Amino acid sequence: MTGDPRRSVPRTDAVLAEPLVAAAVDRLGRDLVRTAVQAAQQRVRDGELPAGDVVPAVLAALPGTASSLRPVLNATGVLVHTNLGRAPLSVAAVEAVVAAAGTTDVELDLGTGRRGPRGEGALTALLAAVPAAEAALVVNNCAAALALVATALGQGRELVLARGELVEIGDGFRIPDLLASTGARLREVGTTNRVSVADYTAALGPDTGAVLKVHPSNFVVRGFTRAVEVAELAPALAGTGVPLVADVGSGLLRPHPLLPDEPDLQTTLAAGADLALCSGDKLLGGPQAGIVLGRADLVQRLRRHPLYRALRVDKTTLAALEATLRGPLPPVRQMLDADPAGLRARAASVAAALQAAGVPAVAVDSTARVGGGGAPEFQLPSAAVALDVRFAEPLRLGARPVVGYVDGDRTLLDLRSLAPADDEALVAAVEEVARRWT
Q: What is the DSSP secondary structure assignment for residue 32, as one 8-state letter?
């Protein structure tokens, strides 16, 4: 039995007492580290690992944080990728989250020592970014914002909505199902492809709670179509007392020259919408949030509704949102505004670095997209690094996962959706996969 590897397995308490392992316990928690220790011990028992390598094996197996979420390099060419967490936060927003993680003055007036308005900084920043709004409110996502509006304005009443805007978005989520769940009755107007101002006004009555405009988000209807824009509908509703609510979806604050057909908050409110709703983690570039902007009396009505308490956001979301609005241009906007010539130069540099390491790679032109339901037909000229198709899966499974996409017999790594600072990490990830094959 002298050669039995089980005799050499180090004790759990001895491994946990090693300085580097003990430091990991302080950072990640005892249970998570103990699991890694037990896995390494089993490898020793199975004869797969020398007993002297237990500590390095434990340290190598530990995650970067106590969360199971892993940082991923987004090389899909989709700027706002829902499966990858939508908008990456700016450095300013990340620092704001860290600062707000402890005890903060989120609802305390330090001057008076009394309770203060919640998230005043973020709300003030929103109003500065969208001057057409009189007041602002933040909840946990855009669906929550729509649910709050439908409950406060439409419960037991009718919400007038064009048939062509009864949309379904990701994961089977349907707008009409959400609206009906609030106790509101839907009054559909027009046809699937055409609606007129007269359709809306004819549907108004004593039970009308609001008229809704919903951005179709991830599809476009072409051909014999007719839609009614806010600027056309608002004057027709003037004097009726019926609020016009526009869900603009992607969170574009103001018009963008690359996205002329994408609705923005400032234009929508200036055109006469009483309330405008959007997501915080799409083209706005911030954390997941649902943003409501518009008339002060309506916003106050939403704020005082009992449902608001269940939907409001936490201090870290408020901090990240304010920093996104006040800080430097967030990553999503930098990606959107990236110069195609600069992207080609980056692709050439990455391909050259991989070729120097013996990895067949070539820089190619590609096409990127906004994603997240924004500008569904718009294509962004971009540049990518083309690799053998076999790279796609092992890159996703690497120590630093890289998600690209397969195009025929190639794996393409699009650089418009990747920060320039991550190019070096991209090269290292590809080289790691290539080394396993040599």
A: H
d(CA 401, CA 399): 6
In sequence order, what are the residues at sequence separation of 6 or more whose Cβ sits closer than 8 angstroms to the Cβ of residue 62? 24, 28, 32, 33, 36
pLDDT digits (tens, 9 = 90+) for 68-91: 899 999 999 999 999 999 999 999
Cβ atoms within 10 Å of 365's Cβ, excluding its own? 12
Largest CA distance in the chain: 94
- DSSP of 106-139: TTEETTTTEE--TTHHHHHHHHHH-TT-SEEEEE
Count, residues in the chain:
438
User: Which tens digit of pLDDT belongs to each residue from 203-239?
Assistant: 999 999 999 999 876 677 778 888 899 999 999 999 9
Instruction: Mark the ranges of the chain whose per-residue pLDDT is less than 50.
Output: 1
CA distance 250 to 265: 10
Contact 360, 388 (CB under 8 A): yes
State the Cα–Cα distance between residues 366 and 371, nearest whole angstrom: 15
* Residue reference for tokens 């599809």: 219
Residue 39 to residues 6, 52, 63, 217, Cα–Cα distance (Å):
14, 15, 14, 47
DSSP state of 10: P
Distance of CA 283 to the CA centre of its chain: 9
With 0.85 as the threshold, say if the pTM is over it: yes
